Amino acid sequence: MNIRVGTGTDVHELVAGPRLVIGGVEIDHPMGLKGHSDADVLLHAVCDALLGAAGLGDIGEHFPDTDPAYKGMDSTRFLHICKGKIQDKGFMVANLDCTIFAQAPKMSPHKKAMASCIATVLELSPDCVNIKATTTEHLGFIGRKQGIAAQATVLLYKNKS
Length: 161
Known about the structure:
Blueprint: E1 2-16, E2 20-22, E3 25-27, E4 31-33, H1 41-53, H2 59-62, H3 75-88, E5 92-101, H4 111-122, E6 129-134, H5 140-143, E7 147-158
Parallel strand pairs: 5-6
Antiparallel strand pairs: 1-4, 1-7, 2-3, 5-7
Helix pairs in contact: 1-3, 3-4
């Protein structure tokens, strides 16, 4: 069995105006994430982890923020496309472990819905997607509520034939 591990990290600034979407879930909050697409920091990290594990580069190569086609795009579409790219190389997702770094809003009420959304897109059992969240104890730009970051680690496998 061919096994690969990938990691992904993303950071977006919190600003007034856009809706806040993390892990494919809209969260009621007065601030949203600034970005070319919907700025879903968690799904962007997951896409980078998938692409990296399969040796396919990163999200910016596949969905450049200079391309107007991706303006305002729902990041679940990015995730669906990335799933197809890794499957084209013969890989399947074994599991995914993610961490969201946010001082506010609280992520715990939304983690199950995020995991469910990601599991649905990747066609995984929900117990194969783990979402964790932490604050930075009021330190740095995250602690000052100026941004949100996310990290993702994925395990891919390919049965040798």
